[in-house]
Design goal:
Layout lengths: L5 H11 L16 E5 L15 E5 L7 E5 H7 L5 H4 L5 E7 L2 E6 L10 E2 L2 E4 L2 E2 L6 E2 L11 E5 L14 E5 L8 E8 L3 E8 L12 E9 L8 E19 L4 E20 L6 H6 L6 H5 L3 E19 L4 E19 L4 E18 L9 E19 L5 E24 L3 E19 L4 E6 L3 E11 L6 E12 L7 E2 L2 E2 L5 E12 L7 E13 L2 E5 L5 E5 L1 E17 L4 E18 L17 E10 L4 E10 L2 E2 L7 E2 L2 E15 L6 E11 L7 E4 L11 E3 L4 E11 L1
Parallel strand pairs: 1-3, 7-11
Antiparallel strand pairs: 1-2, 3-10, 4-5, 6-9, 7-8, 10-11, 12-13, 12-42, 13-14, 14-15, 15-16, 16-17, 17-18, 18-19, 19-20, 20-21, 21-22, 22-23, 22-24, 24-25, 25-28, 26-27, 28-29, 29-32, 30-31, 32-33, 33-34, 34-35, 35-38, 36-37, 38-39, 39-42, 40-41
């Protein structure tokens, strides 16, 4: 089955959505925030449900943020949050296995070998990105989350100014469901159970304790593909509101403490990538060398943090001053069996985040600003051993002990003008590393990046008096510096330079009431990346990173949604369409001169079509179509993966039950779904620039698969 052509997808959406309009805004002072929220069934004994839809709310400035609500996370995600964020504008996720994901934003990060980097990940105010710049997005279970805030790259100054943007995971807010349970089963041995409890709620509405436990198991479609993940989360909020200002109707002083304790264990086999011949004839097989040693990983992750928030009113305008202090720590161990060696890793890190902000009253046209500091230290210990038959561990080979320290200072705010909203941001960061490398003879080395300054400036203004149409523009910069161990291999000091990205984007938001139920936004972007880091090979065949030149990333992102029927039943359709050109401006790496070639690992066109139908009796149907264009697998643009389109659906029935006295309610949700309906064979991930006479570029995607399950939420 041939996938739909990209231009047909766009033409269909324009036909279905004949005008540009955004639903009436809830808050004119909040900006470029796309809130994707599905509130679901209310606890009033009714079984009505709202459609899964985008709501574009005009925010205080042009810096882009996209928020994904808890109910859409539950509707879209089956195993992890990657299934949801893969549908966001400008963002692409490749899935080699349940424990091997690669995420890129506008082509940034598409060349990372086996992980997501160049993008910072936070749980609230707690950073989850390690000292090497890697973020394990795929490890987070959707049942643990309240929302996801996504900033397209480069990330804002307060979130580290990484070139690939930032993701902020947030806990659920005050939940009307103190107890919940969910179970799910599906093809290829998929089994998932989740239990949630929030048994206590303070008079102020805060939830002092949340407990979430989850286990996921899958046998996998391929050989050597078993996956198990268990997690436990304890989190909560405690605090007090000490005074209330009757004139401003605002709390004069608030003290709040948020805490998080999270533990996770992943035990997963690794089938690795396949050659073109095996991908065509035996996609269910594992790579022979990985299957022979039963390759896999056994990883434990522990994260803890405390955030103290203090807010008070200040000045004649009663602006709110807000101080945040976060202290956090992380421990990760990983034992990985590979054909070429056995890897043992230990990461122990921690840090502090401090910030002070001034938030004016919503009706006041005054300054808003914030400033802060983040410091993170990490000790990284890596050992490799000889791999014996059947994956047994042999003699030690080498060892690296590295001490990493990184910090950044930031300041950001707005400039209040009459018609124009202006935002600015400044970030100054530096990475410092010292490590001991065990070889013959042993060496003690250091690698310090120079302080990197990343400014950001954006503006927006309304093009009409009714504030229905708004233009916005943004210029921003960001940088990425890999772990110091990447700059040393086989006794060679590679002296890597950090990547530096400059981004320019502009667009229009439609936020009026001209056409009922329509919402839209279009953005054009142009980004250049200097000192591009690309994977290469040293003369002895050992993989390494090199600075290989400069790349250009340009294109546009289009979002449109139409609410056809609001009441019960409801009908909503949407399109997210991204088209871009990603090329080398300069290339001086090993292997040839590829100036002008398309960047490997990036699809020039991505599209996602959605239809959501809700019926009176509580039944619902959610349809998806995902299109991914042809992707090159090497810098020479000789190997590639074909374009493909994947259809999926989810159907279910929701009902709210209660006792006669209405003292408790039980929300029941029974659902079933199927993915890859047409059983398309496609490459879900590529190993860019794979080496060897028969390069193993391809990770097969899952064939047709189904799942079914049920969830129950009890509320007093």
């Amino acid at each position: 089955m041939r996938p739909f052509k990209p231009y047909l997808i766009l033409a269909t959406a324009l036909f279905l959505c004949p005008g540009f309009r955004v639903l009436a805004q809830a808050d004119k002072d909040t900006a470029n925030v796309w809130t994707i929220d599905l509130e679901g069934v209310t606890l009033t004994g009714r079984s009505d449900r709202e459609a899964a839809k985008f709501s574009i709310i005009n925010a205080e400035g042009p810096l882009p943020e996209i928020r994904v609500g808890v109910n859409l996370i539950q509707r879209e995600a089956v195993i992890n949050i990657a299934d949801v964020i893969d549908r966001l504008p400008g963002l692409q996720i490749q899935k080699g296995a349940l424990n091997t994901y690669r995420l890129n934003v506008r082509g940034i990060g598409a060349r990372s070998p086996f992980a997501t980097n160049r993008l910072t990940l936070y749980y609230g105010e707690i950073p989850l990105t390690n000292g090497a710049g890697e973020s394990a997005v795929e490890e987070w279970d959707p049942n643990l989350l309240g929302s996801i805030a996504y900033r397209r790259g480069p990330a804002p100054a307060r979130l580290g100014a990484g070139p690939g943007g930032a993701l902020q995971i947030r806990l659920p807010g005050t939940s009307p469901y103190p107890f919940a349970f969910k179970t799910l089963a599906g093809s290829y041995g998929l089994w998932q159970t989740h239990a949630y409890a929030a048994p206590f709620t303070s008079p102020s509405g805060m939830v002092p304790l949340r407990i979430s436990a989850n286990h996921t198991h899958a046998d996998g479609y391929r050989a050597n593909n078993r996956y198990d993940r268990s997690s436990l989360l304890l989190a909560g909020t405690v605090g007090q509101q000490e005074a209330f200002d009757e004139n401003t109707k605002r709390t004069m002083e608030t003290r709040r403490l948020d805490y998080l304790l999270y533990g996770q264990h992943i035990n997963a086999r690794i089938p690795s990538s396949l050659t073109a011949l095996d991908f065509r004839d035996h996609p269910e097989a594992a790579a022979a060398n990985w299957a022979a040693v039963k390759g896999g990983e056994d990883a434990y992750t522990f994260t803890g943090g405390i955030t103290r928030k203090t807010a008070w009113l200040s000045g004649s305008e009663s602006a709110e001053m807000r101080a945040l202090t976060t202290v956090y720590g992380q421990l990760r161990t990983n034992d990985e069996v590979r054909p070429f060696n056995v890897l043992r890793e230990n990461n122990l890190g921690g840090g502090v985040r401090l910030s002070l902000s001034r938030i004016p009253r919503p009706e006041a046209d005054s300054w808003k600003y914030s400033a802060g500091l983040e410091v993170y230290g990490e000790r990284y210990d890596q050992q490799t051993f000889e791999t014996l038959p059947m994956g047994a561990t042999g003699d030690p080979l080498d060892r690296i002990k590295e001490n990493r320290l990184q910090y950044y200072l930031y300041a950001e705010g707005n400039i209040p003008l009459k018609r124009i909203k202006v935002e600015w941001g400044l970030n100054l960061k530096q990475n410092l590393s010292r490590w001991h490398f065990t070889n013959n003879p042993p060496e003690n080395l250091s690698a310090h990046s120079k302080p990197i300054f990343s400014p950001q400036l954006g503006a927006s203004f309304y093009l009409d008096k009714k504030q229905d149409l708004e233009w916005f523009g943004l210029v921003s910069s960001g940088s990425f510096w890999p772990g110091a161990e990447s700059s040393y291999a086989s006794g060679l000091r590679l002296d890597l330079l950090p990547e530096k990205a400059w981004n320019l984007e502009s667009g229009i938001r439609f936020s009026g009431a001209a056409v009922s139920g329509l919402e839209a936004e279009i953005t054009a972007f142009r980004m250049t990346v200097d000192h591009l880091l690309v994977p290469s090979e040293l003369p002895n065949g050992e993989p390494a990173l090199v600075n290989a030149g400069k790349s250009l990333h340009e294109g546009f992102e289009f979002l449109v949604g139409q609410t056809w029927i609001r009441e019960n039943p409801s009908l909503y359709t949407s399109l997210n369409y991204t088209a871009g050109k990603f090329t080398f401006l300069d290339y001086d790496g090993t292997g040839g001169d590829f100036e002008g070639n398309t960047l490997a690992g990036v699809a020039p066109v991505r599209a996602h079509l959605t239809a959501d139908l809700g019926l009176r009796a509580g039944y619902y149907l959610h349809l998806n179509y995902d299109f991914t264009d042809k992707v090159y697998a090497d810098d020479a643009n000789k190997a590639s993966a074909d374009a493909y389109g994947i259809c999926s659906f989810r159907a279910g029935w929701e009902k709210v039950l209660s006792n006669r006295t209405k003292t408790w309610y039980l929300h029941c949700n029974f659902f079933a779904g199927m993915e890859n309906l047409a059983d398309i064979r496609y490459a879900a991930m590529l190993q860019v620039n794979a080496a060897g006479s028969s390069p193993r570029y391809y990770y097969p995607g899952l064939p047709r698969q189904f799942y079914f399950g049920a969830s129950f939420r009890l509320s007093p």
